[in-house]
Task: structure prediction
Amino acid sequence: MDSLVDASKQALMLLFSGDATLWTIVSISFKVSAQAVLYTAVLALPLAFILAYGHFPGRRPLIALFNSLMAVPAVVIGLTLYLLLSRSGPFGNLRLLFTQQAMILGQMMLCLPVLVAMGHSAIQAADRRAWETALTLGASSWRAMQTLLFEVRFALFAALIAGFGRIIAEVGSSMMVGANILNHTRNIPTAIALETSKGEFSQGIALGLVLLILALLLNTALTLLQGRGEMIA
Amino acid sequence: MSTKQELIAYSDLLKLYNGKCLLDIEQLVINHSETLLLTGANGSGKTTLLKILAGLNTPERCQVHYQQRTFSWKNARLPTRLPAIYLHQHPYLFDASVSDNIAYGLRRAGYKRDRTRQLTEEALIWSKLEHLADRNAKQLSGGERQRIALARARILHPRLLLLDEPTSSMDQSACEQTFFLIRNLRHEGVAVVVTSHQIQQLRLLADRHLVLESGKLHEVENSKHGVKPAPHKTGTVRVLPTRNQRNPDHHG
Result:
C-alpha cells in the first residue's frame, strides 16, 4: 500500500514538473488518436448515412458486420496490419511498419466500426422529415446529408467520443505496428505496459491519470453540449 | 392537350406499397395559381401522392409534363424540385434560429449574404413573426412552425406548394392565420395542393376538390359556389384516361 501511495506521489510530481519524456508520450498519444478519429469520421459518417438511408442489397448484413466488428480485439487488428505492412507483406514496400502512420491506420481500423455503427443508429433515429425538408428546399443530396448530420450532431459527438475512447486506450495494435519506440511510437498505453513490466509504477500511474482526466473532460464536455441541446429542444 | 394555364401535369402514375397498388393515376394536371383540395380516407395515399409530386417519394412509374417537355419522374426531379415544395403535416424546422430556417433555401440557391438577410426579414414580416427572428425554431408552437415553414417555402418563389394537412391539431386562430397565408400565396400566383380533413373550411379556399379513393383520383363538385366548377376550368384538372388506354376506367 505504501508503495502505491509513494508511486502516486511521484506520479503527480512527474506530471507537474513537466517531465519531457512523459509529455512526449502524452503528445504522441493525442496526435495519433486525434488524427485517427478525424480521418475515420470523414469515412464513417457518409458510410453510416448510406447504411441508414440507402436501399441496396446487402445493406442489413453490412450493418450487422459493422456491429460485430466493434468487438474485434485490438491485437487481432494489430496482427492483421503487421502481416500486411511487414517487409514480406503486400504493402511492405510502403515501409510503414513501426511508424506513427501505421499506428494511425491500426486505430482507424479499430475506430471505424464504432463510428459507423453508432453513427448509423444516430442517423436512423433522426427525423426523416429533416432530410425531406432539406431536399424540397433545394439542397443537393450531399448538402441534405450534411444538414441531417448537423441535426443529430449530439449523438454523433457521442459516437466520436466513444471511438476516441476505444483507440486512445488500446495497447494491442499500437504495440504491434508501432513497436513502442521512445519519442517516436511510444504512446500512453504502450508506455504504461512497459513501465509496469519494469516495475516503474510512478510513470505508469501518471500516464493513467492523464487518461482518466482526459476521459472525464471529454465526457463533461459532451454532457454540457447535450444539456444545451435538450434545453433547446 | 395542354392549355396555356397548365403549370405541370403528371400522367401514368403508379405506386405500389408492399406489392399492392396504392396509387394508379392516369392524369393529374395542375394549373397556375389554382388551389386544389385533396381529400381521401386515412391511408388512401394522399401524403404519398404529394411526396411523389414533390420528387421525394419514388413511384413505380410516372411521367411529368413541365414547360412543354415530358420527363420520366426520375429525370424530372431536378427541374421540378425547385418549383414544387412539399410541407409536412407537422413541418420540420431545423435546429437553428427562425431566421436561419427561413434563409436555408436561399443559401442553397447561392444568394449573397446581404440579399439573404433582406429577403429573410421580408419573409418574417410576411408571416408576422418578426419578433421571433432570433429564437430557436424548436421552441415555437405548432401554428408558428407552420407559418415559418410557409414563409421558408414562399421565399423560394415556388410555382407549386404541396401542403399536407396544414391545419391539423391547430386552434381556430392559428387555422385562420394559415388560411390567410395560403390565400395570399394564391394571389401571388402560386398553385397550391392541400390535403385536409377540414373540408368545409378549405372548400371555401379551393378552386376544385379531388378525392383519392382506391388509388384513383376523382374530381368532385366543389360546393364553394353551390354549383359545379365553371366550364373554363373543367378541362384543366382532368382525371381522364389517356388516349392510348385500352380499357378506360373513368371515374368522377
Q: What stands out?
A: Residues 2-232 of chain A form a domain with the MetI-like fold fold (CATH 1.10.3720.10). The interface with chain B takes residues 127, 129-130, 132-140, 143, 147, 150-151, 229, 232-233 of chain A (CB under 8 Å). Chain A has one domain: 2-232. Chain A is about 80% helix and 0% strand.
